[in-house]
What does this fold into?
Amino acid sequence: MLVAVIVLYVLHFSSGQDQAPSEIASVSAPMSVNIAYINSDTLLQNYEFSKVAAGELENKKDELQAEYENRARGLQTEIENFQRNAQNMTIAQARAIEEDLTKKQQNLLRYQETLTQTLVQQEAKISNELYDKVAQYLRDYGLANNFQLVLTYQKGSGVLYANDSLNITQQVVTGLNEAYALEGNEADSSAVKK
It folds into this structure.
């Protein structure tokens, strides 16, 4: 019985030793991964498409705000006229005008909601287009420069420290702006052909 226990003991520990070195070797094998990062705040601040898109969005917002304010002033004028002339109206006339003004106020509120939704949709469209442009450029840039991973860094992100040698923001901004300028020239030349 003692011999059987000793044999089992030897077999158990000798088989564990055979597997352990190969497992350790596969785990400790060095892996080379090229990583870079971009500062998203700097990118948005310096990428021409982002600047142009933000300007267009601001212009659209101002335009829609002016439309809303114009309608609101018109309604306010109607309300003031009603209040001045209410004493010269019959009760039925006053009620009819009040109901009409109430409907106009409700319509104005719905119009404001529609304008807000329009702005949100426009902003989402621009954000998606911006993301697609940057992601496609980084995909190509990463392949050309043998990067397996490109991270984004901004204040408050999960990255607390990154070595500046991994920062490719300026190269990416330059490349994006060159690509955007080419797009603009192609759009201008296609507009001339039409």
User: Anything to note?
Assistant: Helices lie at 2-28, 40-46, 48-85, 91-144, 169-193. The first helix runs from residue 2 to 28.
